Amino acid sequence: MSTITNPLLSFGPDPWIVFHKGFYYFTYTGHDRIPMRRAESLADLPRAEEVSVWSDAHPMRCTEMWAPELYLLNGPNGRRWYIYYTASDGQDLNHRCFVLEGDSSDPLGPYAFKAQLKTDPEDRLYAIDGHVLVKADGSQYLLWAGHPGHRIFIQRLENPWTTAGARVKLEADGFGCEEVREGPVALQKDGKIFLIYSMCDTGKPDYRLGMLWCHEADDVLDAASWRQWPEPVFTRNDAAEVYGPGHNGFFKSPDGTEDWIVYHAKDTAEYSYNRRNPRVQPFTWRKDGTPDFGRPVPVGKPVPLPSGDLNRR
């Protein structure tokens, strides 16, 4: 098999893919657990065994587990695997961001609970979609979506599980959608940092991606460093019956020559949190150095496997 088709699975909101040492690792919102699949080819992910790498009996973080993201990070304990995720006690406003720590060898774990990330001084405010930006100098920053206003915030990380200093709100245009800015994800290339974010309620067909950007040398904790891209960068494709594309991640092809986006979308224009499923496609770069994500590809359209994929012939 030299191609794949979208969606990868029938269900899988907030998808995340990492390619590491010959394997793709895929996770997504599992609600009462953190699921993960591993496969040598992207084409095999839909049939790969799914394991639960984490569940929790603690009453404040035992349910509504959302948007897990997997990272290999440097910290006081050496280079380890970490999973950043959101969870709650079942009350929406009690969602907070948490961190699991693994070891340096296997992204599948085992994992141990490490910490709740302190995203406001008094731990009063809703916080979801934790994401880690690692600059070229090795400094680490937490980005997340939170209250007030369900907007994007950034704060320095002292280590992978400890925030430090003041949090900073980043203004991001909703282009007519006022209710949500969430799912911040950093994309870095040639001395620039692109911050891709989702806007609108994820139940709406207009859920889509916007972009802020700054230079690598800029102070990312200064809100004025971030420039707004003048239009959304990834939107619904009605002709292909793809609605609400958003909450994405990025990964490289196995040989490192291609950039890919993973995201969820729906096949209905109706307001619904159901039927969000994971999709992938490659993207390119414009001459000015900015990413060009194109349009969401139609369901069932063959997409060539990433360059260097085991099954690409």
Concise synopsis of the structure shown:
The protein is mainly beta.
Q: Which regions contain 5 or more consecutive residues with pLDDT less than 50?
A: none
The rounded Rg comes to 18 Å
Please give the number of β-strands.
22
Task: Bin the strand percentage.
Answer: over 45%
Shape assignment = globular
The helix/strand class is mainly beta
- End-to-end span in angstroms? 8 Å
Largest sheet: 4 strands, antiparallel
Helix segment count?
0
Mean pLDDT: 96
Give the helix proportion (percent range).
under 10%
Strand order of the largest sheet: 2-3-4-5
The helix/strand series, from N terminus to C terminus, equals EEEEEEEEEEEEEEEEEEEEEE
Structure characterization notes:
The chain has 313 residues and is mainly beta. Helices cover 0% and strands 48% of the residues. A hairpin with a 5-residue loop joins strand 10 and strand 11. The protein is globular.
